[in-house]
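Reopening this one. Same input as before:
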Amino acid sequence: MALPLLPGFSRRRNIGGENFHRSQICGYSNNVRRLFEDKPGIGGEPLPGQTLKISSSVHPEASGSGPPSWIAFDKQVLCFDAYFEEEVPEKHQELYRIRHCKIYFFLEDDTIQVTEPVVKDSGINQGTILRRGLVPLPPPNEDQFYTMYDFNINTEITLYGRKYKIIDCDLYTKNFLRKIGIRLNPPASRPDDPYTTERQKRYLESTNPFHPYERFDTLKQFLEFDGQVLGFSCVWNDPESKLPDPRELVLRYYLSDDTIDIREILPPNSGRDVVPFFLKRDKLPKNAPTAPHHPGTITNYTLLNVLAKPGRNKSYYIRDVLQTGAVRQEFYKDSDLKIGAVINVWGRQILLCDCDEFTKEHYRKKYGIVDFTPIEYKTPPPPKPEKIIPPYNGFGSEEDSLNSCKGVVIQTPHKDYRQFLVKDRYGMDSFILRYAAKLITDIAVDKDRKFIISYFLSDDTISVFEYAERNSGIAGGKFLERSRIKKPGQELFKSEPSEYYQAQDLFVGARLCFHGHNFLLVDADEYTFNYMEKNANEFPMADICAVFNKLKSMTESHGKEIRKAFAITDPEHTNVIGYDTFRNWIVSVAAGGFSEHEIMTLGRHYGIRDNSQTDLLLLLSMAQEKLKKNAFENFEQLITVFLYNDREKCGLLPNETCRTIFKSFKLPLADDLLETLLARFEDNQKQVDYKKFVHALNWRENQVRAFVEEKEQPKREDIWNQLPRSPPVTGIRYPPLLDDLFGKVE
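Same output, byte for byte:
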């Protein structure tokens, strides 16, 4: 193992069986080539009486390879604390002076530097005392230089005739000296300069009695409470005012410097000029006169005029330590301000009536005050006369006529644009609830008429269309124009606004009256059922929890009888009964307490759905045709991105993640078509098999034949043949229903 060279170390080589120093061969020093060879005397022979110059290091020469000392000990310095005594001639106040300094020994080249810390107003040139360089030992060893072995604590060294006493060193120096085998002495005490000590003592004795220093420290209060202001509502009864009401003011107390400012609140048409401040921000004295003191009356210090003594030409001033003629004032603090207190603002008595929440919290924490009952200072305003709205006169709409009574300038009624933007048609969501209905009448011709009632959620309007029956004698088509419809049984000419049909009033089994025509809602389309079930908080008839709890409360005590009735109905033990059987059982149990929509909600929840769906091949053919027209062929990149996002490498990704990836590739497919296709390839956990989906879209490798089913143009009487059909429930699984109602049978 190669050891680093210490200062002054050099290398030897074995040349021809003998050891030669490199400096003797080619002029090397510390493994660095020199410009010249340092040879003593003439031709290397010393002159008579000449002494050889030894190396600057006392360490034995190293063997092997290693870095030179100026690299091994680069930026490594030994630091010592020292002092020296300096004589001061021709001055009787001091005979000598103690000067403290630091001695630095640089290990890379054995150089020494002495510096003295700069003391303010010392009158001595301080700083570097001895510049860095090699320092020879005192005579008779002046041909040798100081090394690290010459330094120790509590010893004296002589540098160019000046003696330095080393008293201590830093921790690195102590560890280094111990490693090289030097036993350290205990640290010495640091002496003080007698003249400096005497001077400081005389300065304190001379200044303390005559000029006591009073410090007014407000920085801590400013830093702690800066930006915190207490606010009070207050009043002042101006005796010179001819108005009966007091003047309202707002007082603000600044916790950072205990100052106060007051602003006035001017009512409209008060006749007073608007001024920035009623009281400018400043400390407010408690017992303040009507007029402030003259400048110079109140000061922090009192100075006494001392007349000149005989023999002295000038008089002088001294500080009055006893504060004999000082004018003392007490200022308002936060402890003096509270609700109900009266403060003196330069002769004006102001009553504090209320405060803000921050002020209440401040007094609650600091002073424990919990009663902040405000003081009523305002005369209660007279009650506003009741605005009598005249009854509706029949001209225009009720809203339009009501606006004509609210102001001179008639404005059009405001529409609910937020509702329109939120519930307007978007993508596959039409926000239209469609119901199948029939007339409630005794006329045989009208009993078989079929209607479609559409409720528009964007503006709460209703339209009615009639299905055209062949050979019925009724043309069909638009039966009622789209508009808002009032509920029956309301007075026509009245002052109160009328009530209109809302979305919650329409459900399967509901009876509605539109302008004298009574309708019974018998069915609804799939979108209507899904929308009402998703928003069950708005439609209680579609809330499965509420409907189930209602059924449970009716059948809780008849569990055994109901189980036997279902077992008799299902003799083959298929655990499935027909929807009509289930409906008849609900009607018999509830005895008319359930509406038709509530029965359908239970049936949809526990029923077996009809999974008739749009042909998947038709959707894929439409998607491939769109991709082919736009020349989209980045299917391999799609698979790569899907594999990167599939951290678990299971081949499945959430629906939202797949849709985001397709959007990033700018897939030229409509949003509704893409969502429908993703829904066809997802499982029960909303996970999409992206490999199958991308393979199905790849029109290059898996082309689906595009076809369009030709349909005959519908005739006019078949245009409105779009009646909603019953919920696609083919049967009811009754065991889960019975388990939820009465618990599982063990």
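So the earlier flakiness isn't reproducible anymore. For the record, The first helix runs from residue 22 to 25.
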